Amino acid sequence: MTVLLFFPVAASANSSANYVSKLSDCNAELPQLSLYTILDKGRNTLAGWSHIRTNKEGGEFRSLSLSDADYAITQDYYVADKSCGYAKVQNGILAVKLSDSTRQHSNGIEASIDANSISFGEVGYVLLDLKVNRIGSSIPSLDALRTLYRDFLTEEEFEQFDLGMASLGITLFSQSSASQASEPLNAELLFSIDQEVFFDQWLRVILPLDEFQFYIKENSVRVPQERSSYKASDISGFRINPETSHGRQLREILGDKWSEHIPEAFKEISISLRRIELLKRR
Fold first, then answer.
1. In the chain, which residues have pLDDT < 70?
2. Among the listed residues 279, 197, 168, 181, the one whose alpha carbon sits nearest the alpha carbon of residue 233
3. Based on the number of CB atoms within 10 Å of its own CB, is 130 exposed (0-12), middle (13-18) or buried (19 or more)?
4. Most CB contacts within 10 A, which of 33, 85, 143, 281?
5. Is-above-0.85 flag for pTM?
6. Looking at the domain assignment, is residue 15 inside a domain?
7. How many helices (H) and strands (E) would you count in the chain?
8. Domain span at residue 214?
9. Collapsing DSSP states into helix, strand and coil, what is residue 49?
10. Measured on CA atoms in the order 190, 88, 113, 279, is the torsion positive or negative?
């Protein structure tokens, strides 16, 4: 049995409580709301990418905790999980830089959506059944971040930076936007899980598409878009990125005050994914 679909967890005021609920059974059937399955029993469309495999030793990723291979995102890590009744789950360790915004997403998870199968106007929610694993995670606490970066950030700037939690960015994207054929449309929402409360527990995350930020990029700058302009646009892909709590690195916060001599640190989030679904609008 699972908790109610939209029942929020309130155990931590810092988690994205409106989106997250605890699961008592990670194999429970879904309500009849699914439009498109990205990951579930017998179906896994996930792939991934990693910068780490070519540039860790002695380079920009040298302070990561594990070996290069541990950050690979492949279906080699799609394995049976005892905590989920030995159902197969997709595992991965996602890493994000905290200081430099160049290649800040060290790796990520991505899936292609079948052509002409679903539009932005049809989707109401993105659902993920997942677990944040204690083993493999290395997430600096807020106190550790204050110690590391106290010489560079004011208290006000810390509030724009990171809360020391497992933060993920979920993106749906199309091959091109309606207004500029050369520019992909992105719809993104960030959420955070207080790992100290929810480590090693199966959770259901439900993200309303109405709360996603729609944008295209022009000269690397995000240009906001209205969702209503893209209801008929097909969704071509899905992405999970590791993030800081507000999606910003020190380099963006500090601007001209940032220096490559500021120490780099990483947030490393070990996750297991049991199910990813795009759900109908209610």
1. 1-17, 31, 54-58, 176-182
2. 181
3. buried
4. 33
5. yes
6. no
7. 4, 15
8. 20-280
9. strand
10. negative
